Amino acid sequence: MVAAVDKLAVGAHYGARDWLAQRVTAIVMTLYTMLIALIVLWNGGLDYATWKAMFASGAFRVATFLFMASLLFHAWVGVRNILMDYAKPTSLRLTLQVVVVCVLVAYAGWTAQVLWGHA
Amino acid sequence: MAAIERPVAKRRPIYLNLLAIRQPLPAIVSILHRISGALLFAVGIPLLLWFVQTSLASTQGFDAAFGPLSSWFGKLVLLALAWAYIHHVLAGLRHLALDLHIGADLAPARVASAIVMVIAVLLTLIVAVRLW
């Protein structure tokens, strides 16, 4: 007999999707981090002209956006896991989850503004 | 049957004082992975966005973005975030290895945990040397 799973609205939805997403986003971020580290080491530091030229490239902006999107989704899965462990009352957990989602969406808007706001 | 019968309500010690239990090394790496992640979410992301925005604005902005690093507090914040990022990435790579069943046995798990801790601290020290 299969035991019924009590699915919570504030739970993890018991899927492999987030588990996989957490790993894919981690790899994307690691690769981007290595790219930045290589650029900085290659240039022996960072000056304004180089920095500005990097962000003038459309490909670099897209790569940066991919990094930030990965970061924000990764942060959602991670912070939600923390809340599931420590914020026990459903009302508290839901409230905190809503706050976290709002903060992350705001970060996403900020990211778009930084990358394409003054283009 | 009689041979496997045991007292049902055998009282076992409940001892979950987290500060008194000696945590194994992988557990320490794990809780630091969690703490560093929370720190990066709450402090790291907004500071990163502020830094990129300010530094791209103008030459003056570029200098202003590095301004906080002239103070002790600014250096300390960056150092904490640098450690958090490095530890989080390394502990995460250990997780990916575990998913591939690499280093999942007890002895390799301890060695890998020690490597994560040590390399994270060493790389953070390099950042500290560059900062001061």
Write the layout of secondary structure elements.
The complex is a heterodimer of chains A (119) and B (132).
Chain A: H1 16-43, H2 48-56, H3 58-86, H4 90-116
Helix pairs in contact in A: 1-3, 3-4
Chain B: H1 25-57, H2 59-65, H3 72-99, H4 106-131
Protein described:
The complex is a heterodimer of chains A (119) and B (132). Chain A is an all-alpha fold and 119 residues long. Chain A has a single domain, classed as Fumarate reductase/succinate dehydrogenase, transmembrane subunit (3 helical TM bundles of succinate and fumarate reductases, Up-down Bundle). Helices cover 78% and strands 0% of the residues of chain A. In chain A, helix 3 runs antiparallel to helix 4. Chain A is elongated. The mean pLDDT of chain A is 91. With 132 residues, chain B is an all-alpha fold. Chain B has one domain (27-131): Fumarate reductase/succinate dehydrogenase, transmembrane subunit (3 helical TM bundles of succinate and fumarate reductases, Up-down Bundle), CATH 1.20.1300. Chain B is built from four helices and no strands. Chain B is elongated. The model of chain B has no long low-confidence stretch (mean pLDDT 91). The A-B interface holds A 23, 26-27, 29-30, 33, 47-48, 51-52, 55, 71-72, 75, 78-79, 82, 107, 110-111, 113-114 and B 34, 37-38, 40-41, 45-46, 49, 52-53, 55-56, 59, 62, 89, 92-93, 95-96, 99.
